[in-house]
Amino acid sequence: MKTKLVNPPNTQRAVDRCTVLFDVATELFIQYGYDQVSLDQIVEQAGGSKATIYKYFGSKQGLFLAICRDRSDQFIHQIELACQHESDDIRVNLTKLLHDLYAIFTDKKSMAFDRLLMNISSENQELEVELYDQGPKRAYSTLAKYLEKMDQLGFIDCKRPTESSIYFFGFFQDLHWRAMVGLPIEIMDNERIDYFVERFIRGHAI
To answer: What are phi and psi of 50, to 5 degrees?
Structure first.
């Protein structure tokens, strides 16, 4: 299963066209569900023709996977920004990361899209693996590289950075499940985030 575009847009106009398709298709998928949305519905609202979708994405599934990839890229980018912060203070960087990711997790559209992914992936194991690889697996790997770097610089003791990354993202487990079942989302204040970061760093103290 491929997530890359069949023919990546090479002009600004084409990029803008794909952006509109992403936005319209995302709204329709969230509102009606993946199976209930047709390419005709998408182009009716987005404009253009189905030929554009076939050209850049190959199919409806290709368009959906491209949307998933784009959303994952935005998530990974936030992790990279925090890990590339000018400060060498791991406490500052991890605190910023949790604040940034919390904002993404609690965005209403993000929560609705996550529920959509849960429903689709539960019926398609191949898709489930694909979504894991481009989402959580990439997130763990990106943070693990940062933790490994901090270990090499002597700021923390982290000889198993991937496992530590999985533990770090466990911070969002309760939030994730609340979003999945439609329960109210608890406000994540500074005190709670500071508490978690402090305990995480103490667990990796030199």
So the answer is: -65, -25
Q: In the structure encoding, which two tokens stand for residue 177, read together?
A: 């499940």
Which tokens hold the place of 139?
């997130």
Rounded Cα distance, 108 and 150, in Å = 34
Provide the token pair at 158. Answer: 């982290």
Single-letter amino acid, residue 10: N
The answer to whether 130 and 3 have CB atoms below 8 angstroms apart is: yes
pTM, 2 dp: 0.82
Q: Are 98 and 193 in contact (CB under 8 A)?
A: yes
Q: What is the pLDDT of residues 88-146, one digit of tens each?
A: 789 999 999 999 988 888 888 888 888 888 777 666 777 788 888 888 999 999 999 99
Token representation of residue 55:
């050209």
Task: Name the pLDDT band for 197 (thresholds 50, 70, 90).
Answer: very high
Provide the phi-psi class of 124: left if phi over 0, else alpha when psi is between -120 and 50, else beta: beta
Residue pair 151/157 in contact (Cβ under 8 Å)? The answer is: yes
